[in-house]
Amino acid sequence: MKPHIQFKIDRDLILSIIVGVIGSLVALSMFFLSGYMVTQSALGAPLFALMVLIASVKLFGFIRAIARYIERLLSHRATFTMLRNVRVQFFKHLIPVVPDVYRKFNSSDLIARMIGRVEALQNIYLRVYYPPVVIGVTAIISTIVMIYFSYVHAIIICISMIATLVVIPWLSAKRARILKRQVNKVQGDFLNQFYDYKEGYEELDRFGRTEFYKKQVLHQLDDYEAAQAKEQRFLSLYEYSLNIVSMIALFFTLYLGVVQVQNQELDVVYLTSIVLMMLTLFEQAIPMSNVAYFKADTDEAFHDIDEVIAHPMKQGVEAMHLEVLPTEPLYKVRDLNFKYWNQSSYVLQDIQLSIDKGEHVAIIGPSGSGKSSLLQLMLGLYQSDKGEILLNHQDITNIVDEEKYSQINALLQTQQLFDGTVRENLFTDKDDVELRNVLANLGLDHIDLDRYITISGNTLSGGEIQRLGIARLLLRDVPIWIMDEPTTALDIYHTDSVMDIIHTKAQTLIVATHDLRLLPYFDKIVVMSEGEIVESGSYQSLITERGYLYQMVEMNVS
Ligand SMILES: Nc1ncnc2c1ncn2[C@@H]1O[C@H](COP(=O)(O)OP(=O)(O)OP(=O)(O)O)[C@@H](O)[C@H]1O
Ligand SMILES: [Mg+2]
């Protein structure tokens, strides 16, 4: 079963419902008594009797206020507890879907779901489940009591409450869902487009595309406003139908009441009381006017949140085997097939590869041939659909991250920097002398360790960022190095010196690269094309065989 957010009913909620029902019943009794008092005073009841009635009405007023206070306190506490639980659950489920989740949702969408959609759930108790339950229970008790005074009015309460609490919400639920989904979608589209436009404005400006994009953004805004207007119309209609129900019910309450009084089936002193009580009952039912809408909204919120956490990655639990058997390869990739979750075609097919301890392997191939995907799988960042990747005889996805990364140095195609000093960005506790040494070896001696750099990296050159990424690896004593195009941003001079250092420092080295000049320094070359390994072997043997590598080198020379 897919993971999903669960939420449970807690003690506060049940208590708040009980107090809510008591509060509603007190309100009904208060108005019933008021009606009785008004009629009695018109009929000339003695003053002391009226005083008792007035005092009772006041007392009910007090009790009602207190009940309402306690009910609010409890229901809000229940809501906050629920929100906290949802956030904790969401966070727990979010960790196992990283990094896949970043590929599925862009950051604005993900943040909207993490914050906005979770926030939307605050309405689930107060606006979705609470009103029908409290009003329903109040209505049932009122109906039973009313049978004692007038069964006709009991029937009116019964029918009108069924219409208010069940029939109309049920009829409008589907429409509410469709509308809510529409509004959420156009809102999301609008925000994404607006965000893109704002972020990419300079790029668009250089290509003369700002007007085109602006029109699109404004168009999305119109759509959003139209969807909101439609939603508003629906809400008015829904509220209107609830009002009609209450009007009809009140009309019949009065009309049938008068008929009953004429036929002497009902004592006239109760007529005003019954009418006032009905009015109060409908007043209590006002929160029902948004139930269908909020139900649709919270259902959507659950759906949006569950979608984020739906595809968990397996979390490694095993300790890593550190002893490599002398007869076995360090890495063994067997029958590997892989596709990204949102793509239909495979990006890696039938990959077989073994890498010995101490071997230096280069992976080459045209852009899009699957080099980065293969390296990321070898790091255990994704799970394959078929086949396996064994590191020391152990499925890489079974190994605990911490243990895995204590043996593997990885440089992905892009490096993430953080706001802070260069020293902080090197992720190490080693002393400054060593840090300066490593930076100097990489030709970065001009960069001060205290220099402040930003998350976007736009205060450094591309080559400097890349070398900072490599410096992070050099500061760790780790045997296995996996690097995705480590020298793309470097000039020839820096490429050669940096690769020299890498070859010296790494025990086992796996590098994806487009730089054919580097290949003679590797023990094995793996050539990829369209997701498959088309040839592999030592540089010399592949050149002699005059296959893919030979053609690539020839093309490069010419
Ligand atoms: N996150 C992703 N989701 C879906 N498809 C992806 C994703 N990443 C890569 N791909 C697709 O998988 C295929 C292989 O991509 P990959 O990045 O592995 O190629 P590559 O050989 O590293 O290319 P390059 O030399 O340009 O870095 C490409 O067709 C690419 O469009
Ligand atoms: Mg790549």
UniProtKB/TrEMBL annotation:
SMART domains: AAA. Residues 14-283 form the ABC transmembrane type-1 domain. Keywords: ATP-binding, Membrane, Nucleotide-binding, Transmembrane, Transmembrane helix. GO terms for molecular function: ABC-type transporter activity; ATP binding; ATP hydrolysis activity; ATPase-coupled lipid transmembrane transporter activity. One of its GO terms (biological process) is cell redox homeostasis. Gene3D superfamilies: ABC transporter type 1, transmembrane domain, P-loop containing nucleotide triphosphate hydrolases. The chain crosses the membrane at residues 12-33, 45-67, 124-145, 151-171, 240-262, 268-286. Residues 331-555 form the ABC transporter domain. InterPro entries: AAA+_ATPase (IPR003593), ABC1_TM_dom (IPR011527), ABC1_TM_sf (IPR036640), ABC_CydC/D (IPR014223), ABC_transporter-like_ATP-bd (IPR003439), ABC_transporter-like_CS (IPR017871), P-loop_NTPase (IPR027417), Type_1_exporter (IPR039421). GO terms for cellular component: plasma membrane. Its main location: membrane. It is found in: Cell membrane. It is a multi-pass membrane protein. May be involved in multidrug export. Transmembrane domains (TMD) form a pore in the cell membrane and the ATP-binding domain (NBD) is responsible for energy generation. This is Cysteine ABC transporter ATP-binding protein.
